[in-house]
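Q: What changes when guanosine-5'-diphosphate is included in the input?
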Amino acid sequence: MTNRTFTMIKPDAVANGHIGAILEKVTSAGFKIVAMKYTQLSRRDAEKFYAIHKERPFYGELVQFMTRGPIVSAILEKDNAVDDFRALIGATNPAEAAEGTIRKLFATNISENAVHGSDSDENAAIEGAFHFSGREIY
Ligand code: GDP
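A: The predicted holo structure follows.
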């Protein structure tokens, strides 16, 4: 699975009408979409997905934000997918993100930062399996 990563277009970017522009950046950068859905996380889903951040002060705010509206979730394929996608989206805080990155272009702030990108091959596999069954991956 080292050539796959998992992403979400978060509720802020969906609400602000950026789905099309973000997908254009993703596919132009050479990522192939192997799974995709338009969905909304339940509170339980978001708490589980972000369980690693449970002790962080922003956990409650993060769960609240990620459940407030629909998201697009996807599994992407490309050589070096995890690292290349993290480079494409930019730093967690859009104020620190490089010019031209997705977060620089479309994020609002460190919380509402437009997109998720897995931080390791291991987490990419876990996160992809959390959102998609085998028969939804092409
Ligand atoms: P990422 O890997 O770049 O998404 O960053 P992290 O794994 O550190 O954090 C996960 C998500 O939690 C981020 O994408 C933000 O949506 C949110 N987040 C991170 N740091 C903060 C913070 O300091 N304050 C708030 N409100 N949200 C944060």
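Observations recorded in class: DSSP finds seven helices and four strands in the chain.
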